[in-house]
Write a structure and sequence with these properties.
Helix content is about 50%, strand content about 25%. The protein is of the alpha+beta class.
Length: about 170
């Protein structure tokens, strides 16, 4: 979707004065708006994120990048290993992958169904399984929900910068 912004010019002298001040004012307004949006988006993502061990939540965060002429707000999972990235992607997008073969191994067993027992070591034979992970959309869902508000708030920030730049 393409969104456009407009500026009315009513005389060359006034236009020159407005365009000298506008970039700095627009930058400041947009930076404040993106910082607010980033905080809200991060809170929404953390609220939607699946939680088992808390590892995923510890890797999730947001940041606003300000490069002067380019500002970006980013919220995502900052993985440190390929395995973490694969786990996060499987939870976000789901997985109906190929069959996985698990090698034979030993495991410590300290319960039978829901009853605790004295820990024992058991041999687990090799087996195959097909993953079936439902997409959780914990990243894409919140950004989609915030999309219209974000566009409205950024337009309002630019309108405020235009109004403030007027002589």
């Amino acid at each position: 979707m393409t969104d456009s912004f407009g500026v009315d010019i009513a005389g060359d002298t006034r236009a020159v004065l407005r365009f000298e001040r506008f970039p700095a004012l627009a930058h400041d307004q947009l930076l404040a708006t993106l910082q607010s949006l980033e905080r809200r988006l991060e809170a929404a993502v953390l609220a939607e994120e699946p939680e088992k061990s808390g590892e995923l939540k510890s890797l999730t965060g947001g940041r606003v990048y300000d490069h002067g002429d380019r500002i970006a707000a980013v919220v995502g999972v900052r993985t440190t290993t390929p395995a973490q990235a694969r786990k996060a992607a499987a939870l976000e997008y789901g997985s109906r992958g190929a069959s996985i073969t698990v090698s034979a191994h030993t495991a410590k067993l300290d319960h039978l169904w829901s009853r605790a027992i004295k820990p024992i070591m058991v041999n687990v034979p090799s087996f195959s399984r097909t993953p079936s992970i439902t997409a959780r959309r914990f990243l894409r869902g919140p950004i989609q929900a915030l999309h219209d508000d974000a566009i409205t708030e950024m337009r309002a920030a630019l309108d405020a910068a235009v109004a403030e730049a007027a002589p």
